[in-house]
Protein 1
Amino acid sequence: MVAVQMKDELLGRFNIAKRAACFHELKTAAWKMALVDVIKSCRDSINQISDHIEGATLYLDGGCTESFNFLGAFPLLLQLGVQAVCSLEKVSPLDTVVDWKPNFDPVRKIVIITSRLLSDAHRYILRCLSAHQEVHHCAIFTSVSEIAHSVYPDSPLGPDAFHEYESLLVLDYEELVKKSETKSKQSGDSSLLENLTLEDEGWSQLGPIEGSISQIEARSSARDLYEDNPVGHMEDVGQKLVVSVHHFPMILCPFSPRVFVLPSEGAVAEAYLSAEHEDSLSPGLPPLSSGSPPDGDDIPPGATLTAHFLYHLASKMDLKMEIFSFGNLSKTVGKILTDMSSLYDVGRRKRPAGLLLIDRTLDLHTPCCHGDSLVDRIFSSLPRRERTTSSANIKGSQTQPKHGYGNLHRRPLDVQIPFGKILGEEDSAKDNFRLLESIEAFLCGWNSGTSDAQIVDLVKLSAKLHSEKSPQPETELLNGSFVAMENFHGTPYLETMLDRRMKDGTILVKKWLQETLRREKMAVSVKTRPGFATKSDLQPMIKALTKSQSSFLRNKGIIQLAVATLFTLDESHSSRWEAFTSAEKILSVSAGDTSQSLAAQIGDLINKSVLVGSHGQKSGKMESSEGLLSFQDALLLTITGYILAGENFPTFGSGGPFSWQEEHLLKEAIVDGVLENPAMARLKFLDGITEELEANINKIKPEEAKEESLDQLKLDEIDDDQWGNWGDEDVDDNNNNNKEHVYGDMQLKLELRDRVDNLFKILHKLSSLKRRNIPLREEAFALDNDLSGDPSTSKGLLYKLLTRVLGKYEVPGLDYHSSTVGRLFKSGFGRFGLGQAKPSLADQNVIMVFVIGGINGLEVREAQEALSESGRPDIELIIGGTTLLTPDDMLDLLLGNSSYI
């Protein structure tokens, strides 16, 4: 009997083990079949909080609005029952009136989703509650985890950050209600928001922009519920308010299911990646990898927040990461990730994947150049949305940081696609002419005796309309923006454009427009050449699709992309980009020659830009002419030249790649350029003397004109007064004034030369990237441009690194962080010989590459090329970065307001 029981038990265990093995095989097969999709993961996360947002008024901060726009999440939010979606930074009591549902109910629940730290968002949250006294429940979702809140430098919250904040918010709100009660008794005003002052806002004060919200008149219909007893109602709200704080990590901006960056106004993108020291270039870039990685208190907040974001992103996507790093800051982030995985991932079955972290400072040349990428040209040409908060208002708990860290202010990713400008170029003039013709015909038919004078007036008005451009405020412009979900018959627009060069991308847009017109049964007579797409080809097709509102709405995705492409093809933008490409090609060729040749080319570019600026200043146009580069453009090319020089020439004793004489000429050229046109050189190294420079140039102009007129006058009157000005009492005073003027000019020029010397210290750092970045010392990763100077034949570091990794070659400087292997050793298996060999990144079916500091569109295309050339179609490659970088962004990071110059 016992034997039979044991047999049955063994059979049962065998069956359970067999079923578990089968389940594991099925799950593994499902993992291999399932495609990694960042957009789907983000939308699934929104669905998971549907119970919270149903029937609520939803407030999004600037970073979340940017993220949800790329996700195309706003229709999804309305499907899930959200009453209204509002801006957290621009909160108003009238927000609850804007309800998309026909049966309006007074709002009783508010949901706030923020991409900032709770301490930074606190003043906005408090104002939101103050605007809606009738609210009973407030749910707050933040993209920063509870642990990240507690370890952030100078954070006011501890390990139990979310619960602490819930209590603090309720206390602050109750205190605010009591203060408002006292003020309302004195003034007889029942509005809590109107009685709110800057001193009542918790941890930090608002600047003038947000301060103006205290003057909003609360006229919401929901106020009828408490107008009879306002004070008692406010006390009741303060007691009954329930606050809950949750973590919502999936706040990112996807360009495609496998390419993403972080929102520009989020805590992770705004956090410093380096403190100011010898190896730092900008708070928005990692430090140079010249020594040991930062540790302990030296870890910048950006590294901590990036590590926590990547950990929770992998967790949401059900990925178990094998972590590799290339660069010092990446090594620090990898170590934090490894420690988190060892603590929280034990016993969890997830899909294996590889994570490759790369420091942006290992390759600054690629994002500084104007490569052949349609996406880069679109984002460089189109205007951007303004930030929801100014630099003075994003202070939060870091108003006076102890560790020297603040908040970086990046440009928003939301582009403004100018429909009104492109589509209204010719229509407005035609409409005005037709309107005048109609009025003229009406007047002629109404009273033929008096129509002549009125017709004359109409003719004058017509001439005025044709000669003058009517000002159009920005608020009246019809703007669009990109949504990653929009596609053409299943082909996502943005994802396809990321893999295209400029010519191929424009031809594809033209093809999509032609197919859309055929589907809409519209005929447009346009003479087109096969293999080319020009502005004259695209514009008639776009206008045909936008004639009817129904066609516009049906095809808004392709219309937005086509208008963005059309804007990029405009002469003012395309000529500037081509001028940059030509200049970069010249610099690349010169870098393969001699240092004298490269220095001469850089100086020539600076001098030409000064002439362009001077000509524009004399003609009254501050913008450079089409195809010609401005002084700031020349400085960006100087950065490129110094990076190339550091790659090709040995360093002289002065610390730079050029001789003292060559560098002296470059410095003098920059000094002369700033003195000639200070308005075109608004960069950080000129802070404090910009006004003096502009006053100096304004003073020189009339003096030069006066001298010219005096010289002419003297020539005309030389025979009339042989004694000249002898005996004039004002001569000595004029001489003294001239001496003081010369002394002031000399002081200004000496100060400017000191500033230019500081500028060249940054340029020397850039020229020493290969020497000071330890991973770049190997020849395999030198930024070797093709000696022909053709940018299309040179590849960035990301392409070279992926090529070597996928080819399973040895990569010097690539560190592996043992997550799985480390846990095996910690558990004791290593003592019995059960340890595993170091895994290879190429063995993973899913590889996520994240560039700390940002990526650009060219690198995404090159990474896809490296994957295609590797012959590994089974690998799913995900590419992410801190932000999307354009050449203008790099100028700001290295020499502008976001630099350490």
Protein 2
Amino acid sequence: MAVVFRSRSLLPRLTSLSRSGVRFASTGSKPLTLKERLAELIPSQIDKVKQIRVDHGKKSFGPVLVDQVYGGMRGLPALIWDGSVLDAEEGIRFRGKSIPECQALLPKAPGGSEPLPEGLFWLLVTGEVPTQEQVSALSRDWAARATIPEFVEEILDRCPPTLHPMSQFSLAVTALNHDSAFARAYQEGISKKDYWQPTFDDAMDLIAKLPNIAGRIYRNVFGQGKVPAIDLEKDYSHNLATLLGFGDNEAFVELLRLYITIHSDHEGGNVSAHTGKLVGSALSDPFLAFGASLNGLAGPLHGLANQEVLSWLRKMQSKIGENASDDAVKEYVWSTLKAGQVVPGYGHAVLRKTDPRYTAQREFALKHLPNDPLFKLVGQVYNIVPNILLEAGKAKNPWPNVDAHSGVLLTHYGLTEMQFYTVLFGVSRAFGVVAQLIWDRALGAPLERPKSYSSDAIQNIFKEKH
């Protein structure tokens, strides 16, 4: 197994992880490409799903409550999502691995300490930890695919700067459908068992082109000048940072590596993930499916939360000043709640503990920006808010989620345009969505078509049972 150990303290831990079932990609004389390895894995996964359905297909997860139908289907088991599973107490696991495990196991850039998103994508697709060589090959592959069509550049250049960056992002991603390998193969009559192959090619093209799209939007909207060229020898995050104008800041590049990794996937029930899966089930190609995902991510209840957190923190800071006392912070938090507002960045639909994605960002901040005034305020809020929320009875989970921290980190390095933050979230979320789309086509997932009921129908169902 090819893992570069960064410190002796990790050796016992990684040995234990290896013995407990961590799978590593093959390290033969000529490493397999991601597509080649996927082709090897698909037959056994098809057999696995068939056996699960034979053994458990007629078994029930439990009753469906009327409250769940009216309540946004919270907690309703209704989707297959292989890349990650969210546990209420433990947080997210990517193919069974926690965020700290991914940070320890996944390959790093030379001199870096954060996992490369390329390795996380390999893990999401295969369930295996790739070698450094395989990750480097994936970086080069994406860099080679990164050019966006001239007509897509023209679409973005013609967008008024007043059009929200997420609207532009969705527009450009959807337009990439023009060159979809899957759409072309479907029209030519490709066999169902081979659907995954052009889907994979589209998925790779999609991820590869997102930095150029995001960079062009950022520079057009916020007046940052001409988009630089992709460097074929740099990793994905480094190229994205360069396109945004921050490539010379190695700490910001490291932040992007961490940011993309921890935002890449959060199981399948969230709006952006489920939307992509739903649209993909109609055999819409990955560009159309992920374009729909982005429209869901743009909603205030999904991808805009980190902006709300940053705005709230800045308002607090402007009112009570820097280095305010705990009592002043408490008073401001209570005033927020008494005004009928929520404390943004706290609580989660599933989690009942501090989000490990928050913890990962906090550890990054302690390492790179411990004296940043806004970071200090974030830490102060973390120590104060949960007890207030518990006292007020305002939240089942009074602990911070990922959005409570990300905006502060981006601001510290000079990326202060909050309207753009959701675009970075979108770049990250593509990894999880397209990984599942590939497997959905490989396993022959059917068109999604749940049953719906009217309120009158629900009343009549239970009226007949009394």
